[in-house]
Specification:
37% of the residues lie in helices and 15% in strands. With 166 residues, it is α+β, with helices and mostly antiparallel strands. β4 and β5 form a beta hairpin. The protein is globular, with a radius of gyration of 18 Å.
Amino acid sequence: ARLPEPVFTPSTKASEGHDVNISFEEAVDIVGASLAGRARDLAIAVYGVAAAIALERGIVVADTKLELGVIDGELAVCDEIVTPDSSRFWPVEAWRPGSTPPSFDKQPVRDWVEATGWDKQSDPPALPTEVVAATRQRYVSAYEKLSGLSFSSWWGVGATHVEVGS
């Protein structure tokens, strides 16, 4: 079932491998109560806006990862924000409590890499064309549903921006 409120789950960057999940209390110990609270509030606010816009366009944002940092003394969102690489997007019409619906993300890449048995130490194997095509189609579908635009009419490099929520 849908959670009544978003859940903030902080993590730290590991020197190698995956991020390390920590409790909110551990985040407070690392950055202080004020900054940890502001980070939580910012992350939940960004997620809330993104999830509401996506839901209006037929996509459930099941979860997302935001990278936050301090730049010139100000808390900032760094890196990508609510993309298929950092989030799980599900089509609203396919979502049912307890199910794992098809998603608009890089799962075909994850599945293929896992099936190859790649050791994650050596250079990764080249992705087959069909895996790239399946992943591209998911990303294009997410773009089209979220933006209301056709990917084939995307204006490309040098574009300014598109207003959302107006």
